[in-house]
Amino acid sequence: MPLNPFFVQDQLPATSQAAIREFNDRYLAVLAASKPSGWADTLGEMIPTDRPEVTFPINQLRTQYKRTEGESGFKKLLESSFDVKTEEFDDGYEAKLRDLLLKVFAYRNWQKAPERLVLAEEQHRHNQIAIILDGSGTRGGAVGSANDPGGVGRTCVDGVDFFSPSHPVNMGDSSVTMKTTGSATWSNYQSSAKNVLGSLASGNTGTFAIDYLQAEVTSMQNGVPDENGILLGADPDTIVIPNDYAEPLRIGLANSRMLANIQVNSNQAVGAAALDNPYVGRFNVVAAKEFTQASGSTADWYLIDSKLIRAGISPWLSLRETVPQSLALRVFDESTDYFKNTGNIKMSSHIWYGFSLVLPHAIRRIKGPTR
């Protein structure tokens, strides 16, 4: 019996070129088979491009019929736009050629590397969208810093912060107001801290209630206008929440019965009673493990209408630039100076991405409790 029962000679490559060729083939096969998944891909857009910068126009056609009186009515086509630039990111693997030719375990790890690169690219999209959406570290830092505030500090296409209490109803015509309120602005941001688990909860523990959730759902339903000032019909069906609040929220929403305070009048409560939960099966709860859970951060949460997103009103996008294969996957084999100096071969994967927040209509951010 051989000393290493896992050693099989024909599992090992004969040359470095064979190892690199298999790495390259596996990388392309895994990349071709991978499908966008996860909240950053399904709740936003992933757009391929062959250019390093893309301009996205936003039309404000304001189409609305009126009674014909005299001459036909016309209006100018109004358009805003924003630019997204791609940046280069990279990662890779290297290995001693001797190990790949003689050690089965080293070669097996080399074979797994292409799949890890594809998974790392998907995770990279989620990490970057989480930063521009939710921020990183404690709130109040500068954009792009270690304490990036996310969408509350990034200007969107309408000229105000992406999460703001003062979005213009129409980006090109300040005279347009909401039909329900008469206001020329609308909000997709609740800056007062509200726990997604309700007023009876403390942090991510305690008794679940729907009072805060119901208030914010109602605000979104009655506060998002179209370009004419008519309610857009936003009706959130998804809650994106930091990972540490996800399971308590799922359990709370799944319960058919819940506790709620019974009010005698506006000043007096007589205790709690069990009530039916009207939100059973209503929401898709998405745990964003990329959101910060650091001490001092806030557990902000997001209401999203996935139906509006499917209709084209995307809150964010990932722009992926397609480059030649020689740039995307770089090979350092036996012919390179690197191998001659080290005895190692290596493969370097390079990707080009741009990330941007887009339209604020399908998403609402609610400030959560401080951890």
| Anisotropy-based shape | globular
Distance between the termini: 59 Å
* Count of β-strands: 18
Helix-strand sequence: HHEEEEHHEEEEEHEHEEEEHEHEHEE
The secondary-structure class comes to: alpha+beta
**Share in helix:** 25-40%
The total count of helices amounts to: 9
Number of spatially distinct domains: 1
List the uncertain runs. Answer: 1-10, 71-77, 137-144
Reported for the largest beta sheet, the result is:
5 strands, mixed
Strand content: 25-35%
- Give average pLDDT, whole number: 83
Any idea what the radius of gyration is?
A: 26 Å
Structure commentary:
With 371 residues, the protein is an alpha+beta fold. It has one domain. The protein contains 9 helices and 18 strands. The chain has helices at residues 16-33, 39-42, 97-102, 104-134, 211-221, 243-254, 306-310, 325-328, 337-342; strands at residues 45-49, 53-60, 78-85, 87-96, 167-168, 185-186, 189-190, 201-202, 205-206, 238-242, 257-265, 268-276, 284-288, 301-304, 316-321, 329-332, 344-357, 363-366. Strands 1, 4, 15, 16 and 17 form a 5-stranded mixed β-sheet that branches. Strands 7-18-14-10-13 form a 5-stranded mixed β-sheet, with helices on one face. Strands 2-3 form a two-stranded antiparallel ribbon. Strand 11 and strand 12 (268-276) form a beta hairpin. It is globular, with a radius of gyration of 26 Å. The model is unreliable at 1-10, 71-77 and 137-144 (pLDDT under 50).
